[in-house]
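User: quick one, fold this
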Amino acid sequence: RDAVEQLRFVSRGGADPDQDKGVDGVALEAALARVEAFETFSTGHRPLLRIEDLQKRLAPGQQLILLAAGEPGSVAAVVSPNSIRMIDLADARTLGAAAGSVRAGLSRQDPMGQKALARRMQTLANLLAEAFDSSDQDTQILVLSDSMLEAIPVEILAGWDPAGPGVRRSIARWGIAAGGDWFAKLAGAAAREHPLVLIYDATGGPVGGARAGLPNAALEVADIAGLANAPPALKLEGVSAAAWLADARPRRVGVIHVAAHAVNHPLISSQSVLALAGDDPAAEVSLGTLRPAALGADLAVLSGCSTGISAQGDYRQGFAEAFIGAGAERVMATLWPVDDAASAAFMTEFYRFLWDPEVSTPEDALAQTKRLFATSGQWRDPYWWAGYQLWRGSLGAELSGQLAQQR
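Assistant:
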């Protein structure tokens, strides 16, 4: 809030001239655009919803687990059709330290350290055990967290058994899964400017370096476009893809898929970029150039490395947050660097489930893809599949506040 007020003060010409030297007008404009998008999103984008109202959406035998992590402590609400149970979790410092330890282990492939990683995961799972003691039911897990919980795959904390008979679990972050027939919604996307936009780095080349070629990106895009039930696709690469993303004209599309390097700036998030043709600066799109409502999409999928977090390690000011601010209803992104070949395989299966008429939401499609990978030989370790997460921007602040009041 202080930063917002400072930006407003400077933009209205109220700053002291001696203190205003060196202000970057372009950066200020980009920052103000982000503030404007956040305020519009926070106050006018969604209706208020009480926790009690959620009970009406649950069928007998279903439950919803709300996780809110922050200062000074953390809380879980286990919501069923007939009850709301509040559980105090660990204090913020303990939870944050445990989450950081788990994320550090999962964010690298470490076959020799899998036992140590399993112990760290169990430590954090023990902190949340009471919240999940009845999670053998159909469960939707909603994360309303600060950086403590956003940086780790919640299904691991839930003791998620991918082979569990008859158990359905889906994960959503910062919002409620909309439910309904997602496939029908997507099939009706003909009214949108483009039902499917595939953006990728086609430079290929050897693996290695911060912006190594992505030999599987073009294959990933081709496989997605060739799936059964896939809608007509607009394919863009390199400079043309960068121009399309940076266009400030408001658009409404079905799905935006980006297969390219994501490079987080260590200090200034607005200068983090999507690199759409290796090192070519003309094919870069910075987060500061994304405009509110310019990329209105039902779903944006960012399959590059660490697209779900910023350089500081949490969701705020990262690529997922930027695409939500630009109008995406949902964003699927990654919590750590992902392997090029594994990502191509994962995305193909995700879209196969997404366009299955029997799958109702992207949350369900992601859960089914993870179950498939977690039971396969080549990609079984959590490193390969646990980093893919879904974010939504609705109802997070309201529900988080209500959880705090009900404690």
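User: anything notable?
Assistant: The CA atoms of residues 135 and 157 lie 11 Å apart.
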